[in-house]
Design brief:
heterodimer; A: 221 residues; mainly alpha; 2 domains; 9 helices; 67% helix; B: 289 residues; mainly beta; 1 helix; 23 strands
Chain lengths: 221, 289
């Protein structure tokens, strides 16, 4: 019998596939085929990520580590979280290394879900397009709900910007929303298209990043 | 360790108003306050700038010190430049609850050692960096970003600000939503450029084993090449066009994706890897003039 629901499982899926003990996760994984499949796919990607040679050379993390060290020395921060996550900070966190902002937290879980769908193509190939379509619809709905919550927070911060910047930010939010709509349509039409799913995934990331930026910069004013 | 010179330029301000009035140049800002600070630093200093609005100009020089010069238009804001160990932090912030967005403008000219690492936030205005060889992270909303003769690992993020890089080296990652991206005479072996509705122009060297990834949603991506260049090309526009002037040979590594309009092939030995993707925009692979 499952002791946690799908949403709770997805909240902890990162720890779960890293091998950490998550109360109720094992039972839920046994009971829910969808969550089990997603966890398996993500686990496979994780394994591939650590076993494959790194395609890109390591970026210079000096600027981030130096900043962090100094801030810690001065007592300005206590957390070990870097200003910007270095490569290999965590297999999934590194995918999102360029959006480590507070407002992203809400979108993170949703993004995790879509990432599972988008990235798991070559690993967990469905038998027909309907399965892709259904899975994409479900995960897109989940992600959109997460982003809606982040958008509410961001909209409250918009008043702190100048009218020009507010207009710029609204216009760009519309651009990203339009991209998402176009990509969703494209994925619905060709659910097996990796490039369409990649663009959809990327558009979601852009929106999460933009909302995070609005919240963060708005609060700082 | 720093030295400071603060001067209230009221007489200059009055003169500026007078001149502006005479010339009818109402757009010329009238500076209320000018600050100049010097900081002695060691090797690889870090310089951070957080500014809501204004023009930031950063140049490398041969001195082992950071010079910060700022001009602000309003007394409702304060410019702070402080040193903590080998880091110099520069911030603009409101000191009055009534400070309007227009009051938040401060312009900076900052001279730094060549090996300085930079972290810059500037929402609107412009950011210009020249000759700095350290790592750089620039984030803006509407501010355009211009770089010339830089060489560090560079990450740039804008919302609708443009990005232009001239003779830049080092790894470059630039992301924007509606800003244009122009990479001219680049000498980098690792480039990632992405925008949604903006355009991308890549007109740089293709270094052996280099990786050049350009991604757009609906803008135009233009890739310039010379006949002697050597790269493996993959160009795909899911719903747009791909125009090509390169005489490509069958690629050693790639395969032809069966989606949208695709082009895969090698120019000469295919030493670098060029990957261009668009959702519904146009990709142009063009010979250099």
């Amino acid at each position: 019998m499952s002791t946690i629901n799908c949403t709770e499982f997805l909240h902890h899926i990162d720890e779960w596939i890293e091998g950490q003990e998550v109360p109720g996760a094992r039972d839920h994984s046994r009971a829910c085929a969808d969550c089990r499949g997603l966890a398996e796919d993500l686990g496979t990607i994780r394994l591939a990520a650590v076993t494959l040679p790194e395609a890109d050379p390591d970026p210079s993390p000096r600027i981030w580590t130096a900043l962090r060290t100094q801030l810690e020395q001065e007592g300005l921060i206590r957390s070990v979280a870097p200003t910007r996550l270095p490569h290999r900070a965590g297999w999934f966190a590194s995918i999102f290394s360029f959006v480590p902002r507070p407002a992203l937290a809400a979108a993170y879980v949703g993004a995790l879900v879509i990432a599972g769908v988008v990235l798991s193509g070559p690993v967990h190939m469905p038998t027909d397009q309907d399965r892709w379509r259904e899975r994409t619809q479900r995960t897109s709905a989940e992600l959109n709900a997460q982003l809606e919550a982040a958008e509410e927070t961001a909209m409250a911060s918009l008043t702190n910007f100048s009218p020009d910047l507010t207009a710029d930010l609204r216009r760009n939010l519309s651009i990203v929303d339009n991209d998402i709509a176009l990509c969703e349509k494209s994925v619905q039409e060709s659910p097996e298209s990796e490039i369409a799913r990649d663009y959809l995934y990327n558009a979601y990331q852009q929106k999460a990043d933009l909302l995070a930026q609005i919240s963060e910069r708005g609060e700082g004013r | 360790m720093s030295t400071t010179r603060v001067s209230s330029l009221f007489s200059k301000s009055k003169a500026a108003i007078l001149v502006s009035g005479l010339l009818g140049l109402t757009a010329v800002p009238v500076w209320a306050r000018h600050i100049e600070k010097h900081f002695k630093v060691d090797a690889h200093p870090i310089v951070t700038i957080h500014n809501p609005n204004g023009i930031i100009t950063i140049k490398a020089w041969t001195k082992q010190e950071v010079l910060v010069m700022s001009d602000q238009t309003s007394d409702a804001i304060e410019v702070e430049a402080d040193q903590a160990n080998n880091r110099v932090d520069i911030t603009t912030h409101a000191i009055s609850d009534t400070a309007s967005p227009a009051d938040m403008r401060a312009d900076y000219q900052v001279n730094v050692p060549e090996d300085a690492d930079l972290q810059i936030h500037d929402d609107s205005g412009a950011v210009n960096v020249a000759n700095v060889l350290g790592a750089m992270n620039v984030e803006t909303i509407a501010a355009g970003v211009g770089m010339a003769d830089t060489a560090g690992y560079t990450t740039v993020s804008t919302v609708n600000g443009s990005f232009q890089c001239l003779r830049c080296a080092g790894r470059i990652e630039v992301r924007s939503i509606s800003g244009n991206i122009r990479l001219e005479d680049l000498r980098s072996s690792d480039v990632l450029a992405q925008t949604s509705t903006g355009n991308i122009v890549f007109n740089g060297q293709y270094l052996p084993n280099g990786s050049y990834r350009l991604k757009d949603y609906s803008g135009v991506v233009e890739v310039r090449f010379s006949p002697a260049d050597s790269f493996d090309l993959s160009a795909t526009s899911l719903k747009g066009k791909v125009n090509n002037e390169a005489k490509l040979e069958p690629s050693h590594h790639g395969f032809l994706p069966r989606v949208g309009n695709s082009l895969v092939g090698a120019l000469n030995a295919g030493r670098a890897r060029v990957e261009v993707t668009s959702f519904n925009g146009t990709i142009n692979i063009l010979k250099r003039n």
